[in-house]
Design brief:
10-stranded antiparallel β-sheet, two-stranded antiparallel ribbon, mainly beta
């Protein structure tokens, strides 16, 4: 699952202007814990757009391509991660270093997996890499940025998806933050370039 009730305490501004999408992330939920640093995108989004197969890296351009953090899906639910629509079989990579705390089986119709990662022992931060198939890692093992976790999980017959989430706290008190806030310069640039290309090609945001 990748939508959550609107329980976050800090505002996220989503701008939908002239058919384009942009996201401004802001963090007013401070913590003394050491934050994670995302240095690798979960799927390949490097290079340039190829019109022959509507692709950019492992991304396949059909709405929505990328579901930004903070998008209201309906009157009650918000996207609380970055979600990527990818080609079938696309490798999913670890975005940061850490230890896999657990692996959760997502219920049908997804029937894929969520990897729960702790980046710093005792930290308030939890990183989730969601919607992964054909797992290549085990719980309670260490991983480093770029390690292959598996393949992009379920979305439709033609496309796959995967997602990244960042949470602070535990249980019902967990607050979700925009993953872009934790990306290094390369991570942010690649994601911004993907959004720019998405907008340039004239795709309309569709989230159903």
């Amino acid at each position: 699952a990748f939508f959550a009730p609107v329980t976050r305490r800090h505002p996220i501004l989503l701008l939908l202007l002239a058919g384009s999408i942009a996201l401004a992330c802001a963090d007013d939920d401070p913590t003394t814990a050491v934050p994670p640093v995302f240095s690798v995108t979960p799927v390949d989004i490097s290079g340039t757009y190829h019109p022959a197969d509507s692709s950019l890296g492992d991304i396949r351009f059909s709405a929505p391509v990328l579901i930004p953090f903070g998008v209201m899906i309906d009157s009650e639910n918000r996207s609380y991660g970055l979600q990527y629509i990818a080609r079938a079989g696309a490798p999913v990579r670890a975005v940061t270093a850490g230890v896999i705390d657990s692996i959760i089986t997502n219920p049908p119709p997804a029937s894929d997996y969520t990897i729960v990662m702790i980046c710093t022992p005792g930290s308030d931060y939890t990183v989730y890499q969601d919607h992964i198939l054909n797992l290549q890692v085990l719980a309670h093992t260490s991983i480093k940025p770029g390690d292959t976790l598996g393949e992009a999980g379920t979305w439709s017959e033609a496309y796959r998806r995967t997602a990244v989430r960042v949470g602070i706290g535990e249980g019902s008190g967990m607050r979700y933050h925009c993953p872009l806030d934790y990306g290094n310069a390369s991570f942010r640039e690649l994601n911004n370039n993907l959004l720019i290309e998405y907008n340039r090609l004239g795709f309309s945001p569709e989230y159903d």
